[in-house]
Amino acid sequence: MKKTKIHFFAIIVLLICCTTSFCLESQEGGTMNANQEKIENLSLLMKHFQNNIDSSEFDIHIQITDCDGHPLDNVELDIKYARPDLKMSFFSEKQETQNERRIIGSEIHIQKKGWSNLILSFRKEGYYSESRRFEIDFMREDISNYLCKQEIQVKLFKKGIPAELDGIKTCLNYDFIKNEKSICDLSTFRENKTANKKENNDKDEEDYRKKTKNKIVNLETISKATKYLELDFRRDSKGDIIYSNPPTLYRNLLCPSTLVIRFQSDAPDDGLIVINKDNLKIKPDQFKKEYTTAPEKGYDQKEIAINLEEKDANGRYLFESEILYVFLKCGNHYGKAKIGPISVLRNNKEKKIYDFRMDLELIINKNESDRNLNQ
Asked: For residue range 312-339, what is the model confidence (pLDDT) as tens digits?
């Protein structure tokens, strides 16, 4: 739908230009025939797009299964068809829509003509919902693109028993100007924290945990926190930040070569498991539904290094869009986190980078040794 909106915006700009030209020519004594021809051309253009929409057709065959591929029946399906309303003002973003709701079996064939967008939403009690979107670019000249024909499988993932989770949503940052950084303090999730705990301390510990998730520390100060996540950079034997040779430049500004996400903990069993380290494509919704049980072992990483020099074929820095998905073991508690992307704050006038920031969304099971991460 985004691509269509961009194209439609281009048409609006064209119409504005034509209308402006029409007004100027009228003021300057332009001929009525020329102006009438422009109006007719605009009308023909809109009719052309309307014909393209009328010719658009969805032909979608869908199989609905559980995560193991077994067919599912009695699934509730919401269908939404949409298309631009070209009968409205040229500058309107109003859409025509048509909605349907069905109870379906494990297979369905959807065939519909005259619409440019299709949204399908699948729901079944006890399962996570799923949605699929389809779009036909009715502004293309190639008429073969007006048919969207696909065969797809939609998997519904069963909801597990919700775990007792503590959620943390914050931002890790490293500020060169203020000479400080923020850390995500996880000290309350320590080993054997319940061994000698008195019953009347339960609420105090819970309140304390909620207050200690984010701390600001000076760059030269050793944090009093015993377990925490922080941002840092690859350093040499003297402790100085490493810049590549020649120095790494980020958008013409001097920049460290490698950012480090560090889990600071003295416990040998604490650490991280990067789920998508082999370029596995994971979506946030998929992370929530599919990665619901933390591994028991394998937490052998305390640091994740991110190359700040790497670019794609189009010259874009990869770290600006990269998101990491990790499992985490902290004391006797298991969790998982979505980390990234990275933002770089810079002052182009002074030619300095003054802050690195990275989003962090983390959930940890409150119960010791419980690897359940169902939300």
From this structure: 888 899 999 999 999 999 999 999 999 9
Closest CA to 250 of 197, 319, 304: 319
The more confidently predicted of residues 34 and 95 is 95
Q: Are 123 and 129 in contact (CB under 8 A)?
A: yes
> What are the CA-CA distances from residue 161 to residues 6, 158, 288, 374 (Å)?
43, 10, 14, 6
The answer on pLDDT for 90 being more than 60 is no
Dihedral angle at the C-alpha atoms of 274, 278, 279, 281, nearest 10 degrees? -70
Please tell me the least confidently modeled range out of 10-14, 94-98, 185-189, 337-341. 10-14
List C-alpha distances in Å: 11 to 14, 89, 261, 282: 5, 13, 46, 36
Task: Single out the residue of 350, 345, 362 nearest to residue 287, CA to CA.
Answer: 362
Asked whether the beta carbons of 309 and 244 are under 8 A apart, the reply is: yes
User: What is d(CA 264, CA 272) in angstroms, rounded to the nearest whole number?
Assistant: 11
- To which H or E segment does residue 33 belong? helix 32-55
Rounded distance between C-alpha atoms, residue 86 and residue 372, angstroms: 51
Helix (H, G, I), strand (E, B) or coil at 229: strand
